[in-house]
Amino acid sequence: MALTVHLSCLLVLSVAGLAQGIKDSLRVQNPGPRPLELKEAFTLFQIQYNRSYSNPAEYARRLDIFAQNLARAQRLQEEDLGTAEFGVTAFSDLTEEEFDQLYGNQRAAGRAPNMDRKVGSDEREESVPATCDWRKANVISPVKNQKSCSCCWAMAAAGNIEAQWGIKTGQPVEVSVQELLDCGRCGDGCRGGFVWDAFITVLNNSGLASEEDYPFQGAVRHKCQAKKHQKVAWIQDFIMLSDNEQRIARYLATEGPITVTINKKLLQGYTHGVIRATETTCNPDYVDHVVLLVGFGKTKSPEGRQAKDASSRPHRHSTPYWILKNSWGPAWGEKGYFRLHRGSNACGITKYPITARVALPAKKPHQVSCPP
């Protein structure tokens, strides 16, 4: 653990002075040989993330991708209106296309089924607390790592059910993601899916087994084992919430965590802070990654890097944000979590806010089949 932290610090220090220079050099048609400092940073990256390449040509290619990603991180740093920091991550040797292929969920960008959005009361009548963080209530399971399995939808749905079950029953539980993959109504497993498919699978199977009994094995495909394991949590239905962020915050504060689907474009190089993207840098209409919304708050920090007065002092006031649980492991982002600006529909967060409602099983659950 100490070695990992030390390597992370070295990477941050070595990269800090490189990004702008690399960005400038990439504008030149023939930038010449790479600086020694870049290769040193790349070596630290390889050590920290256990990367090795099959031959010198592949090493040179990945070094070039690494350099371009550093330049892109610097550009995002300048364009972002919040407090987010972008830099070296486990994905820094991947092209955007490779990142999309490995971690994108193209099905998540599809249309939701015909679901009426839950309409709340007039937002002026809704009192919303200043902060909310369900991680403090012992109802959020540890951050998981989907690795090469495109199952963010299943992990977010499982996290939603766990949190809702813990809040409503007072009994913390960790449910099986693998059951959602093996027993899905459309049989898509690690090839991507919709969060509502996960909830329908739970309804069809009359509950979910525990993670301990039916553990996550990622891309390894199995026959459905749902009937072999005892169920530990059930849902009665699922609903889509209003696309109003005030009402989403109200529901989150009073009922518990929900799933949301966002545009993941900015997450490849994200390290920490509050992302406040524009529609140009993060299109809110294209959403391709499902995560769990667990809280919100405000932070005292410069609202934007460009917001300075004549004396070059930043205007300081509260920056509202959402807290989201990702599925790329605890070493990514803020211990597996990240923050998005609240109030600007950042990265399309209001498009599909969906939650299960937990309850003991019905006597005869209604079966739902995959549409042709």
Automatic annotation (TrEMBL):
SMART domains: Inhibitor_I29 (SM00848), Pept_C1 (SM00645). PROSITE patterns: THIOL_PROTEASE_ASN. Keywords: Disulfide bond, Endoplasmic reticulum, Glycoprotein, Hydrolase, Protease, Signal, Thiol protease, Zymogen. Its main location: endoplasmic reticulum. SUPFAM superfamilies: Cysteine proteinases (SSF54001). It comes from the Eukaryota. Residues 1-21 form the signal peptide. One of its GO terms (molecular function) is cysteine-type peptidase activity. It is found in: Endoplasmic reticulum. One of its GO terms (cellular component) is endoplasmic reticulum. May have a specific function in the mechanism or regulation of T-cell cytolytic activity. Belongs to the peptidase C1 family. PANTHER family: CYSTEINE PROTEASE FAMILY C1-RELATED (PTHR12411). This is Cathepsin W.
